[in-house]
Amino acid sequence: MSSDNQEHTGRRVKRARRLRNLTQRELADLSHVSYSTLTKIEQGVMPASPSVIGALARALSVPVAELTGQPYLDELRKDQLDGLIQPIREALNVYDIGPDPDVTPRGAEELEGDAEKLCSLIRATNLKQAAAELAGLISETTTAAHNDPSDRSWRLLASTYRTAYDLTTKLGFHDLGMVALDRMEWAAQRGSDAVISAMRQYMRALAYLRASDYRTGKRLVQLGMSALENAEKGHVRDVVTGQLHLGAAVLAGRDKDHDLAEGHLSEAERIAGRTGPAEKVHWLSFGPTNVGVHRVSVLAELDMYGEAVEAAQGVSIPSDWPLSRLAHHHAEVARAHMWAGQPEAAFKSLLEARKVAPQQSRYHPTVRETYAGLESAKRRMPETFANFGAWLGR
Q: CA-based, 20 to 30 A from 29: which of 194, 208, 226, 388?
C-alpha cells in the first residue's frame, strides 16, 4: 500500500467507511467506538489509540495496516529499503523444493555466526544492513538444511526465519512476517524444537494483538505454553515462559482486562526474579527490565496513562539494553505522555526514540500516531517539531 504524506489514520478510516456505505453513527455502533471519538478521529483532531484502530478495522473488515498506512512505501523508497524486501519474499517462497543447485552453503558454525550477527544488527536497529544480508542467508541455510537434515540445521533455519519475521514486521510488512512465522514452525518441527515452536506462537499472538483479535491471541499464548511442556526444564524454558506471560499481559491490557493483565505481569516478574537478565536467550530481551517496560505498556493499554508515565519513571534501563527494545519503550512512553496531556514530554520521548534507533522509529506506527496526535498541540511545541514531521515524511 502506498503511503500518502497528506493522510492520517482518520482520513483512511473515513475513506474505508464511505466505501462500506456506512454513516459515522453506523460505524460507531458497529465498532463500539463513541460517535464523538470517531468524528474527532476522522477530522484529525484526536489521535486513534491502538485499541480504537483495531475496533474500527474489525468493524470495517479491513486489516489494521490499511488504516495506519503501513508499510510506508514512500519513506522505504527514500531509504532504499523497498527493493530489499522482494528478495526476502522470494527466499521465503522456496522453502520446500529442496537444495538450490546454485548455492554452496558454508559450514554450520559460519552460518550460525552470520545468523547471530543478523540478530545483533536488528537489535541495534541497523535494519538496512540486515535486510541486505537476510535473503542470502535464508537461501544458504535452506540449502544447508536440505543437504544435511539434522536437528542443528533445521533449528538454524527456523532461527533465520524468525529473523525474517523481526525485520519484515519492523518495516511494516506484516503479511510477509506471518509467512516467515509459518516457515519458522515448518523448520522447528523438523528440528524437534519445542522452544522455537512456543516462540512462534508468542509471535503469532503479537500479530493478532496488532489485528485486535485478542481472543485468538490469548489462545495462541496457551498453545505456546502447551508446547513448552515438551521442552527441557531449565533456564531457557523459564525465559520463554516469562516472555509468553508478558505477551499475554499486553493482550489482556488491550482487551481492558485489568486483573488478567496484572496476573500475567506478576507471574512474569516472579520468573524474572529467578532468571535475572536474559536478553540473549533466543534474543527475547526477557528479564526484570523487560517486565518493567511491559508494565508501562500494559498500563497504557488499560488507558491508565498517568499511571503509565509514573511507572516509566521508576524503570531503570541498563546501558547495554537492546536499542530496538529501548526505542520501542520510548515510543510507548511518548504515547502515554500524549494521552496524559503532556505534549512536550511526549515529543521529548519521540526524540529519544529517534536518537536511539532512527531506522526503526521512522517506521514505528506508535511514533507516527503519537506525532499525529501532537499536531493539534503544535502551537505549544518547539520549532524542531516540524523538522521531526518532515523526517517522518508527513
A: 208
Distance CA 253, CA 100 (A): 46
Q: Nearest to residue 120, comparing CAs of 303, 315, 279, 247?
A: 279
Residue 52 and residue 41 in contact, taking contact as beta carbons nearer than 8 Å: yes
Last residue of a domain, one of 284, 304, 321: 321
Q: How do residues 30-81 score in pLDDT, each as one tens digit? A: 999 999 999 989 988 888 888 899 999 999 999 999 999 999 999 999 999 9
Residue 194 CA to residue 186 CA, distance in Å, equals 12
Q: Cα separations (Å) of 177 from 35, 72, 280, 358? A: 34, 16, 22, 21
What contacts 142, CB < 8 A, 6 or more positions away?
Answer: 91, 94, 95, 99, 100, 157
What distance in Å separates the CA atoms of residue 124 and residue 313, rounded to the nearest whole number? 24
Radius of gyration of the chain (CA): 21
Residue type, 247: G
Ramachandran class of 276: left when φ > 0, alpha when ψ lies in -120 to 50, beta otherwise: left
Determine phi and psi for 107, rounding to 5 degrees.
-70, 165
Same domain, 279 and 353: no
Supply the pTM of this predicted model. Answer: 0.90
* Of 178, 227, 237, residue with least CA distance to 198: 227
pLDDT for position 275: 96
Comparing 207 with 44, the larger pLDDT belongs to 207
Domain that holds residue 275: 220-321
Identify the CATH number of the domain in which residue 34 sits: 1.10.260.40
Are the beta carbons of 242 and 272 closer than 8 angstroms? yes
Is 293 in contact with 268 (CB distance < 8 Å)? no
Cβ atoms 133, 367 nearer than 8 A: no
Residue 5: the pLDDT is 44
pLDDT per residue as tens digits for the range 244-295:
999 999 999 999 999 999 999 999 999 999 999 998 888 898 999 999 999 9
Average pLDDT over residues 333-347: 94
Strand partners, 286: 278
Please state the rounded mean pLDDT for residues 203-214: 91
**Residue 306 falls inside a structural domain:** yes
- What whole-number distance in Å separates Cα of residue 238 and Cα of residue 225? 11
